């Protein structure tokens, strides 16, 4: 039987490439659509790569005609909240106009099913309680606003012409492929766990803590870290639900537990056994103090629960990925986890 094809915009990126692997394992053929501005062609391992921009005239029409997909998973977006404050127009052009161009191409080619990579940033400063989907949408930066605009576009198109969509609002994506085949390739890197690992492994001199005066137990921001493997699984489940006739829905994806910046640094030190130099700096504009998910609706509607809820596993998987990328892989004692060969010293206290 010929595998059903699925378009994955941003399929060469961090979450997109992991989802392509999950789609392949679930029996689909993922078609990665990426301009490679933030993704890597080396991460496209489970299906073809179509290189181009969503707004390039005629590009998406050709992709849809060649592959005749049953649906689209839309990851292509700029994601760095701080940068969005400095360059809002760039984020609106990419995240909003790109989404609109995609939905217009879908309509021209009679493809009606879309899974949107959305974000908890649409909630803004939500306070300390786990956030439900019904929480007010009050983004505090252009990144969150651009994703809320994308969701609004989908809802309006659903009402007007029958577009069918799921918006998955995930919290902080982290970790790496547990098999070691994929990881983060951001340049520049902006995510906390890889930045802390780089500081531990000497790839950067230190880790910067932006803000130590937040209303949290240790003064640093608290985030809900959800493993990229679990995010990929949720996208496959959401696609299956939509193809089985499920209705339009918006769902949170997270672990339901928050970790502060200082806790992530401490956990990385415990996993690697290496000292990490932390430098305290002022807050960045647009950073909410606390974001923690209530993902009970995802459990109800997708049957989804995180397979990797422990943030220490996220750090271990990311460490395995990084040491392989940097040529540090041990060739002996294969029964011992790789990070134990690379980081044999006992855990040390953070400075």
What this model shows, in words?
The chain is α/β, with parallel strands linked by helices and 351 residues long. The chain folds into two domains: 199 residues, 3-Layer(aba) Sandwich (Rossmann fold); 118 residues, Alpha-Beta Complex (UDP-galactose 4-epimerase, domain 1), CATH 3.90.25. The strands form four sheets. Strands 3-2-1-4-5-6-11 form a seven-stranded parallel β-sheet, sandwiched between helices. A three-stranded mixed β-sheet has the order 12-9-14. It has a two-stranded parallel ribbon with strand order 7-10. Helix 5 links the parallel strand 5 and strand 6. The N and C termini lie far apart (58 Å).
What characteristics describe this protein?
alpha/beta; Rossmann fold; UDP-galactose 4-epimerase, domain 1; 3-stranded mixed sheet; 14 strands; disordered C terminus
CATH architecture of the largest domain: 3-Layer(aba) Sandwich
Helix share bin: 25-40%
Poorly predicted regions: 329-351
Roughly how many Å is the radius of gyration?
A: 20 Å
Structural class computed from helices and strand pairing = alpha/beta
By DSSP (H or I, 4+ residues per run), the number of helices equals: 11
Oligomer: single chain
CATH homologous superfamily descriptor of the largest domain:
NAD(P)-binding Rossmann-like Domain
- Average pLDDT across residues? 89
> How many separate domains make up the residues?
2
Number of strands: 14
Task: Describe this structure in a few short sentences.
This protein has helices at 14-25, 59-67, 81-86, 88-108, 142-161, 192-200, 228-243, 261-272, 296-302, 311-325, 338-342, and strands spanning 5-9, 29-34, 49-51, 71-74, 113-119, 164-170, 172-174, 207-210, 222-223, 225-227, 249-253, 259-260, 278-281, 290-291.
């Amino acid at each position: 039987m010929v595998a059903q094809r699925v378009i994955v915009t941003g399929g060469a990126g961090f979450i997109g490439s992991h989802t392509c692997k999950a789609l392949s394992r679930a029996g689909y053929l993922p078609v990665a659509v990426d301009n490679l501005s933030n993704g890597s062609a080396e991460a496209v391992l489970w299906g073809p790569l179509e290189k181009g921009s969503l707004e390039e005239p005629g590009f998406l029409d050709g992709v849809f005609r060649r592959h005749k997909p049953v649906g689209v998973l839309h990851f292509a977006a700029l994601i760095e909240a701080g940068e969005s404050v400095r360059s809002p127009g760039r984020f609106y052009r990419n995240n909003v106009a790109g989404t609109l161009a995609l939905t217009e191409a879908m309509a021209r080619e009679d493809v009606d099913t879309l899974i949107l990579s959305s974000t908890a940033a649409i909630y803004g400063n939500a306070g300390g309680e786990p956030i439900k989907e019904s929480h007010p949408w009050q983004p505090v930066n252009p990144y969150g606003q651009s994703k809320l605009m994308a969701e609004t576009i989908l809802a309006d198109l659903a009402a007007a012409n029958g577009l069918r969509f799921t918006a998955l609002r995930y919290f902080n994506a982290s970790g790496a492929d547990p098999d070691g085949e994929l990881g983060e390739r951001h340049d520049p890197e902006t995510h906390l766990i890889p930045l802390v690992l780089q500081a531990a492994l000497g790839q950067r001199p230190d880790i910067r803590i932006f803000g130590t005066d937040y209303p949290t137990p240790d003064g640093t921001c608290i985030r809900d870290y959800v493993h990229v493997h679990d995010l990929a699984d949720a996208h496959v489940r959401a696609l299956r639900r939509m193809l089985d006739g499920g209705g339009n829905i918006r769902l949170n994806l997270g672990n339901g537990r928050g970790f502060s910046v200082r806790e992530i640094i401490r956990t990385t030190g415990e996993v690697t056994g290496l000292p990490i130099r932390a430098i305290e700096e002022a807050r960045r504009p647009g950073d909410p103090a606390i974001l923690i998910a209530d993902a009970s609706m995802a459990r109800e509607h997708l049957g989804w629960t995180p397979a990797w809820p422990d943030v220490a596993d996220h750090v271990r998987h990311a460490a395995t990925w990084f040491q392989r990328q940097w040529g540090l892989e041990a060739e002996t004692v294969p029964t011992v986890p790789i990070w134990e060969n690379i980081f044999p010293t006992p855990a040390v206290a953070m400075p």
